[in-house]
Write a structure and sequence with these properties.
Length: 247
C-alpha cells in the first residue's frame, strides 16, 4: 500500500488527510494518507526511513522553507519563491530521492484570477512565512504591486499599526497568509482599518476553518468581496497529485 502524508506542526486541523483518504476510498486506490506531526524538521529523515512505501508528502507551517535543505531537487518555481509544500519521494534501489515543488502558487493563482477587476492593482500580503512568499510570487505574476505586512517593520515590510485607511483603499487586495482567526481562535483578526474598506476591496483569507473568518466578516460588513482558502486547497490537492505522479 502506498503512503502519502503531511508534515507540519501542529496538524490538528488538516484538510489534506480527509480529502486524500476519501479520494482513495472513492476511487479504489490502495493507499493511505497520514499526518506526520513533527516538532522539529530534523525528524524528516526518520519519517522517510521508517516509511518505505512513502510516495509523496505535503508540507505545511512551519516547515515550507526549512524543508528545502533536505531535498535533492527543488523546482525552479519553488526555488524562486523560497518555499516548498509538495515533496515527491522516489525510491531507486537503496537510494531515496526527494523532489520539492510548490502548489501554493497554482492553487492561489487559479482561485483569485477570476475575481480580479481592472481596479485591483496593488495588494497587501499579511504575514511573511512560506505561504506569503508564494502569494507574492503569484500576485506579481498577475501584474499587481505588493507589500508585505508584519508585526515588525523592516525593509520591504510595513507593520500593522502603520496601515491607514488610505492604504487599504490603494492596496485594495488584501491576502491573509497568517493563522490569525483560525479555529479555535475565531474571534481574532488582523489589525486593519476595516471601516475604510468598500466594494473595491477584495479580501482573501488562506484560512478555511471557520468558513467565514472574522477578517472576512469585518470586510464584508463594509462591502468588500471576501473569499476563504478552501478552493485554493482543492486546487493545491489536484496539483500535489500531479507532482507525485508525473515524475
Amino acid at each position: 500500500m502506498d503512503t502519502y502524508g503531511l508534515i507540519g506542526y501542529p496538524l490538528s486541523h488538516s484538510f489534506s488527510i480527509g480529502y486524500f483518504n476519501e479520494k482513495f476510498q472513492n476511487e479504489g486506490i490502495d493507499a493511505e494518507y497520514v499526518n506526520f506531526e513533527i516538532p522539529q524538521i530534523e525528524m524528516l529523515p526518520e519519517i522517510i526511513a521508517s516509511n518505505p512505501h512513502l510516495v509523496g508528502l505535503n508540507v505545511t507551517i512551519p516547515y515550507k522553507e526549512k524543508v528545502m535543505g533536505y531535498l535533492d531537487y527543488v523546482s525552479p518555481e519553488a526555488r524562486a519563491i523560497g518555499a516548498v509544500n509538495v515533496i515527491s519521494v522516489i525510491h531507486k534501489g537503496r537510494e531515496t530521492i526527494l523532489k520539492g515543488y510548490n502548489s501554493d502558487v497554482i492553487g492561489f493563482t487559479q482561485s483569485i484570477k477570476p475575481m480580479l477587476e481592472p481596479f485591483h492593482k496593488k495588494a497587501l500580503i499579511l504575514g511573511t512565512g512560506g505561504a506569503s512568499k508564494a502569494i507574492n510570487y503569484s500576485l506579481r505574476s498577475l501584474g499587481l504591486e505588493t507589500v508585505f505586512v508584519s508585526r515588525y517593520e523592516r525593509p520591504g515590510t510595513i507593520s500593522y499599526d502603520k496601515i491607514t485607511g488610505e492604504d487599504v483603499q490603494e492596496y485594495n487586495v488584501i491576502v491573509n497568509c497568517t493563522p490569525c482567526g483560525m479555529y479555535p481562535h475565531t474571534n481574532e483578526c488582523p489589525n486593519l482599518p476595516y471601516e475604510a474598506m468598500d466594494s473595491h476591496n477584495l479580501l482573501y483569507d488562506l484560512v478555511y476553518n471557520p468558513n467565514e473568518t472574522m477578517f472576512m466578516h469585518k470586510g464584508a460588513q463594509h462591502g468588500a468581496t471576501v473569499v476563504n482558502g478552501l478552493e485554493m486547497l482543492l486546487l493545491q490537492a489536484f496539483a500535489s497529485w500531479e507532482f507525485w505522479h508525473n515524475r
